[in-house]
Amino acid sequence: MIETSADSAQPLPGDFAIWIFIFAELVVFGVLFAAYAFARSSHVDVFNASQLTLNRAYGFADTLILVTSSYSVARATLSIKAGSSTACGHWLAGALGLGGLFLVLKSVEFHQDLAQGITLSTNLFYMFYLALTFFHFMHVVMGMAILAVVDYKAYAGRYSAENYTGVETGGSYWHMVDLVWIILFALVYVIH
Amino acid sequence: MKLLHFMPLRPCTLTWLVLLGLTTITYELGSWASGKLLMTAVLALTLVKGELVVSYFMGLRHVQLLWRLVMAAYLAAVGGVIAIAYLTA
Amino acid sequence: MKYPSQQVAKPYFIAALALFVGQIVFGLIAGLQYLHGTFLFPELPFDVAHMSHTNLLIVWLLMAFMGAAYFIVPEEAQTELYSPRLALVTFWVFLIAAALTIVAYLFVPYAQLAAITGNAALPTMGRGYLEQPLPTKIGIVLVALSLLFNVTMTLIKGRKTSINLILVGSLWGLALLFLPAFYFPHDTVKASFGWWWIVHGWVEGDWELILGALLGFILIKMTGVDREIVEKWLYIIVAMTLISGIIGIGHHYYYTGAPSYWIWLGSIFSALEPIPFILLIVFSFKMLMQRRREHPNKAAMLWALGTPVMAFLGAGLWGFMITLAPAQYYIHGTNFTAAHGHLAFFGAYAMVSLAIISYAMPLLRGRTANSAAAQRWEMAGFWIMVFSMIGITLALTGAGIVTVFLQRAADDPMGFMQAQDKARVFFWVREFAGVAFFIGLLVYLRSFFIAGEYEYADEMKQALAA
């Protein structure tokens, strides 16, 4: 997947500080995933039984939404590099809309779980399922807050073909939120 | 990835379509496969998806090798830990 | 120092150091009582010495934080403090209340103290760190409100920098997190659930933000690195602190009657709590390497760099060793916990307090930096205290391990006192390390009594001659 190009010595896109944060967040999620996997290895039956009660279609839809949202942010970055701040703003607005849709869908899922009387105490699988997805949910909220600021600035014309670090900074965080969801979807919804 | 240059699509658009496709395969696999086959296949697909997001969405394919290696190592580590945990269950 | 009103910080810093001395004296007495249980009994029983040791710690740290706030907020806001007079009145109220409380601990039996101070009407006394009688607790709230009013008004009328926002915001958090002190239900599960939110909500969450803000301020001043860079780092550190700390506090809920999922959530998230400390280390040393000036106050720089390193060791590493639920099952309440407590409190909060004092006190006394001789004393004090505290920590860790293997995890477990006896050698090491720490503190304090300012010319001459 790694493609070498002439300008392969560029620094990381966006502000370097956001990458420190992204790496720290990835470590946090990595530890959570590892904990899930090892907790499962001593409670396989509980995990398998409870996992089957999840509606995998929701997870599927969640993933499609976030991937598309991430794509939208990638297009926003391309747009601003091409000098169009309006297009950049529109793509970001699209990404935000999809982020909102993700939150709505996830809330519906949480609501259904609660209606069935499922809580953190139900069993170990649901503890992880609720904790992981809610923790990720909060990251989507935070990512959307960052994107909203970037979008506002994009529409206000504060970015240009020469100055687009802010778009890349916010975008990189959003891609990270997408990346961890892709792993989370596979781990929690699919693999059993 | 020379192929990309002959495609009418932007690399990130192609990436997006591939991601949608791989997600669908992952979802479908979940319905009929199970056990080690499912785990191996889905983990492999997920690592590919992760690398696609890192390279084409985050844009890390343009940056210093070090950072690409860090990200690849992260994905490999997470995938490896999950695989070990599932195989030793 | 740019604004005369910053001078109110001075009495706070001096009082903090005086109370620090008191804390160490009580620590030495309590440490000796581990070896000779009847030492000073019945005049000063162990529980009173212990309580005075921990309460003085909290009070001197609060004094130092308040002094830091009165020093930093006006400078960052680029305006005079809203009311220096109120700050000064608050200082005396706080100092007298703290002193009276300690005197009451020493001369009035605790149960009688509870009866006199109306503990029956609103029971609050008895829990660790929160032994203060009701009037003292109310006094703490009033002092905190006065501080918050003062610094918030200053912030409103002045420049709103990120450092100021983080500092004032976390001071608000500090005050709010104290409120569960007034919640002490009969249900011990609920009582301990609320209790952890106070001192541990402070040290694992809110105070880390204060630490970040103080360190950020010192580093901006001393290295001349762009504010923008420091602020970005601070935001990342704040975010990681909250992400790990808020749920990580669940490691106090194991086996207390709280739902069992806390065993998992607490373990996982508290295992992540070292991350912000690692970031603090990277941040501090990066700022040092990017420095644009050589500040003459070398001692303050030493404190500022020592803080994240020691905080990482004490809070991060020692905390991690005892935080996972299976480990905690055996280690809880042994001297291993005390080892963590000592190195974490000293490495994070005592050291950051001494760092801001080291930076601010020369300025408050009208110098850019102390003379080279004074700084040599101060830095000698730094090293003696740091190594002594590491000695205390290792000794307590040893004592904790003895308890774990003889009393907790043994096939044929020993009784508590028998196991304590086996750890005697470690208690001796701890006591000697404690004496060394006290000497280090005296060496440090000696630096304040060396007159004179840092002389660039003299230093240049010496450097050229060498």
Notable features of this structure?
heterotrimer; B: 89 residues; mainly alpha; 3 helices; 0% strand; C: 466 residues; 76% helix
Q: Indicate the mean pLDDT of chain B.
A: 91
Query: What is the CATH topology assignment of chain A?
Result: Four Helix Bundle (Hemerythrin (Met), subunit A)
Largest sheet of chain B: none
Number of helices of chain B: 3
What CATH architecture label of chain A applies? Up-down Bundle
Number of strands of chain A: 0
What is the gyration radius of chain B calculated from CA atoms?
Answer: 15 Å
- Strand percentage of chain A lies at under 5%
Largest sheet of chain A: none
Shape of chain B: flat
Could you describe the 3D structure shown?
The complex is a heterotrimer of chains A (about 190), B (about 90) and C (about 475). By secondary structure, chain A is an all-alpha fold. Chain A is built from six helices and no strands. The longest helix of chain A is centred in the C-terminal third of the chain and has 32 residues. The two termini of chain A are about 30 Å apart. In chain A, about 45% of the residues are buried. With about 90 residues, chain B is mostly helical. Chain C has about 475 residues and is mostly helical. The longest helix of chain C has about 35 residues. The mean pLDDT of chain C is about 95. The chains are: A mainly alpha (about 190), B mainly alpha (about 90), C mainly alpha (about 475). At the A-B interface, helix 1, helix 3 and helix 6 of A face helix 1, helix 2 and helix 3 of B.
